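Mods, move this if it's the wrong board.
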Amino acid sequence: MDNSGIFWSASIQELKKGYVEESDSFTCLLCGKRIEKGIVYPFEDKLYEAERYTQAHIEQEHVSVFDYIMKMDKKLTGLTEHQNKLLRLFYEGKSNKEVQSEMGIGSMSTIRNHRFVLKEKERQAKMFLAVMELLNERDTHAPVVVPPHKQARMIDSRYNVTEEEQQKTIQKFIPDGVLLAFPPKEKQRLIVMREIAKTFKAGQVYNEKKTNEVLFAVFHDYVKVRRYLIEYGFLNRKPDGSEYWVNE
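Not the wrong board. Structure tokens:
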């Protein structure tokens, strides 16, 4: 299972912590970094056991789970930009008066109403989760859908991909890691770009020449592939195009 799969299958408690525990390791849900148990890790002149080091990793690399989630696309979080900003200010411990002043909206009662609406959204989310869990226990006909990657730029019908569709598309277009032909359909392109993105190592920065070399080994029109990788959010780059890295 890739990192997006681990992320979306995690429980609420695991998401809050930002990592999952396995028999021999801890895995960061935000980037996929795996930290083995039974090893003492040095960090800022201190020695940490595996779980504490995982927590330190999240603080150093991702700031916090809250910060990471709030930076995700609104199609993934279900939050409007207005709600996102409100939640950030509440998370920072701002009072109603401070939030009203900083956002320059309404009055104190307006902010209180926003808090009420957010709590109502929370209650609705709990009911929806409960209903979906009950449904999943009974619905034996639902296909297994591939979860969207966390850095997706736009969530639409292209992301309605089952595991069976994904495997068939990979076998048709890129069976051995080499792209036989550029897919004509958007959904097929998304599947193929997801597969090509796996040729880049997470956490490694590639200069433009190396990026082109990696992609040329996959398909002759590496510029086209590179453009789609960036468009779909699998690959990121500096504004001047000098460095590239895979989104985690």
